[in-house]
Amino acid sequence: MGGAEEKKAKVAERGQEGGSPKASSQLLDSIEKLQVIQDELEAINEKASYEVLEVEKKFNELRKPVFAKRNEVIVSIQDFWLTAFLSHPVLGDILSKEDKEILKHMVSLELEEAKDVKSGYSITLNFSPNPYFEDKKLTKTYCYDEEGNLSIRCEPIKWKEGKGITDGDRHEKGAKRPYTSESFFTWFSEVVWSDGRVDEIAEIIRDDLWPNPLKHLQNEVDATGLYGEGEGEEVTGESNVGINEDEDEEEEEVVDDDDKEYREEDGDDEEEIDYEGTDADADEED
Question: Where is this chain compositionally biased, Acidic residues type (predicted)?
Fold first, then answer.
């Protein structure tokens, strides 16, 4: 029995329990009309969902060269991704001391959507050679099946001897994991789970950090003056002090030279005046 027929049967049943046959008939007709309209809306919604996915796929391809251009600039900025993570109000709180040291070697972030968009995405962190692990890149993939169930795949990190971050507290399925108990890299290398749990860290990277890493970084720059006008040029308070001191020393040296020259010239003039005055006195005596 379809949805419309079920609704009609329920309405008819209620009409039999009480109320006039005429009223029940009119209600049935109205329900049938509403169902037709609702089916029409559902068809439009289904078409809209399909077309939205097609548009998203198109613009994902258009974004790729722009993201590549952005990365070319980012790699010239020292510790960019470390600063971007630290500046984020959520991601900054989950970074351990070891995480921060490792992120200094991170050169780029990549996010790849599945071809059909709706079936998942992958997050990849690329690294320069570093003393912590052998991997040049770390990838974590999120996959959705046709029923919308989520599964996660990630390769274990190949830590170098004596390195590695201890696993944080493991929690039962369905439990919300407190960020403070685990580091970023224990999260990134977490084993596969498929309990339908929402992964907030991955969503933050996909929906917030990746589209615009400058959003929170700019707030940090405005507040602390982290970078100067040139990309990657650090302008700390200490540096400013040094620059001002050098300028003051140069100014003092210039002033001292001028004073010295001025005094010498002034002294010469005084000597000439004294000499001329001596000649005049001699003439008067003669």
Answer: 244-286
